[in-house]
Design brief:
Blueprint: H1 2-31, H2 46-58, H3 63-76, H4 84-106, E1 113-114, E2 117-118, H5 120-150, H6 161-198
Helix pairs in contact: 1-2, 1-3, 2-4, 2-6, 3-4, 4-5, 5-6
């Protein structure tokens, strides 16, 4: 009976630690470039790389850490007022890289590791796919979801869709690839350890 209790405590403590680490990494990735302009993507959006890397390293169980990290970034770095739209944007940013990872696994495009090492070519494709999902979800949240569900009584928000997609997509790809490659080179042995442990 004691062994079962110890295993449960270890799993809970591991869950808490991985989520705390994820909150810190996601929040710090937002601090690097500071405040952002509404509806304009950053030239280098490191946070999507932090989120993607967190999912690759720890799996879907760090979703709450990612979501909280993005919310904290919104409130303390970007000056969000805390509206339902902000929460929706945070949710979209939290699930976009997870959807990209699951899509690649579903279609058997990659397991992301070979001989306990990351396959960098697959990580580049993952960054592009995560950028597609993130840009699409953010566009949906800021147009259809905002105008039809959150604030139907307000005038619809006018967005230059071409400019929005271009700026978000480019910043997501550059930031995703930059963060993932830098972090992967630094913590590659650490990632291999966690991947073995989770399989």
């Amino acid at each position: 009976m004691d062994k079962i209790t110890n295993i449960d405590k270890f799993n809970i403590s591991e869950f808490i630690v991985t989520n705390l680490v994820t909150i810190l990494v996601v929040y710090l990735s937002a601090l690097i470039f500071g405040s952002v302009k509404d509806l304009v993507g950053q030239p280098v959006w490191l946070q999507i790389g932090a989120v993607t890397m967190s999912y690759l390293l720890f799996g879907y169980r760090v979703f709450f850490g990612i979501f909280i990290g993005i919310l904290l970034s919104g409130y303390f770095v970007w000056g969000w007022p805390g509206s339902s739209l902000n929460w929706s944007q945070a949710f979209a940013g939290s699930i976009a890289p997870l959807l990209a990872i699951q899509t690649m696994k579903l279609f058997k495009l990659s397991s992301f590791y070979e001989d306990k090492k990351l396959i960098f070519e697959h990580i580049i494709f993952l960054a592009i796919l995560a950028a597609v999902y993130n840009t699409s979800l953010k566009l949906f949240v800021n147009t259809t979801f905002r105008n039809s569900i959150l604030y139907p009584d307000l005038p619809p928000r006018e967005i230059d869709i071409a400019s929005f997609v271009q700026s978000y997509f480019f910043g997501d790809i550059v930031g995703g690839v930059a963060f993932i490659f830098i972090l992967a080179l630094i913590v590659s042995p650490f990632m291999s350890y966690f991947r073995q442990k989770n399989n």
